[in-house]
Write a structure and sequence with these properties.
The structure is a single chain. The chain is of the alpha/beta class. It folds into 2 domains: about 200 residues, Rossmann fold; about 70 residues, no CATH class. Helix content is about 40%, strand content about 25%. The longest helix is centred in the C-terminal third of the chain and has 37 residues. The model has no long low-confidence stretch (mean pLDDT about 90). It binds adenosine-5'-triphosphate. One of its GO terms (molecular function) is ATP binding.
Amino acid sequence: MIKIQAGRIHREFQVKNNSGETERLVVLENFNLQIREGEFLSILGPSGCGKSTFLNILAGLDRHDGGEILVDGETIKTRSFDRGLVFQGYALLPWRTVLENLEIGLEIRHVGKKERRAIAQHYLALVGLSAFAHQYPHQLSGGMRQRVAIARVLAYQPDLLLMDEPFAALDAQTREILQIELIKIWEADKKTIVFITHSIDEAILLSDRVAVMTARPGQVKELIEVALPRPRTEAIRNSGDFARIRQYAWELIKDEVVKAQSLQAGIEEREHNEKIG
Ligand SMILES: Nc1ncnc2c1ncn2[C@@H]1O[C@H](COP(=O)(O)OP(=O)(O)OP(=O)(O)O)[C@@H](O)[C@H]1O
C-alpha cells in the first residue's frame, strides 16, 4: 500500500539577494516520490536541495505551490497528530521534567496516567537516559536533549515518523547506538519513516530504500533499493554488499554535490560582480 504520494511538487521562495532585489528561488520542481506503508525511506542530497522543504510540506508546516501530495490518500491540510516529527534541536518544554516531556503526546491521546508513565520509562531506557527521568531539559547536554526528543516521538507511536537529521548533533558513539535502537524499534512495529540524513552509511544501514536528490531545484534522481537482510546489525556495515551500495550511492550523489557547490559559487560571483559595478 502507498502511504505517501507526492507528484510534480513545486515549491519556490521569494528571496532577497545581496543587492536587495527580490528573486525567485525554485527549491522543488517536478518532485515525485511514492513511499510505501511501513517503509523506512531515507532522503540523501546535497545541502540546499530541498530535503527539509519536502519534509516540512509533509509535516503540514509548509505549503507547496504546485503538484499534489497525499498521505493515506488525503491531501495534507495542517499539522496532524498522526505524524511525529523529530528535527535537529527540536524543542523540549523547559518547565517539564524529561519523563513529563516524554508523556506529552500520550496525554494528547488521553492515555491513562499509569500506562503513560510506563511507556515513557520504556522509551527513556531505550535511549539510555533512565537516570535522568526527573531532571529538567536545561540540566542535560545538547546530545542528551536530542535523545529525549527522539524518545518522545517514539513514545508517542505516530503512524508516520518524519525525521530531519535527528542524529546529526550527536557524538559518533551515541549516534551508532541510536541507529541500532531505531532499527530495532522500526523492525518491531514497522511504522512508515521518512528520514533525512547527510550520511550515506546511515541511510543504507537503516533504510529499505534511499531517495537520492539532485541539486536544486530538487528532484528525486534515483531510488536505491537496499536489499540487505534484516534484522540488521552493526556487522552489516562491513559486508561487501554494503560497500557496493555505498559506492553506488556515492557515485550518484557526488555529481549533485559538485553541481550544488558551483550553483552556490555562481550566486556568490554574480552578487560580487553586481556589488563592484
Ligand atoms: N522559508 C524560506 N524562505 C526562503 N528560502 C528558504 C526557505 N526555506 C528554505 N529556503 C531555501 O530553500 C533551499 C532549500 O532549503 P532546505 O532546507 O529544504 O534544504 P536541505 O536540502 O534540507 O539543506 P541541508 O542539507 O543544508 O539542510 C535553501 O536554499 C534555503 O535557503
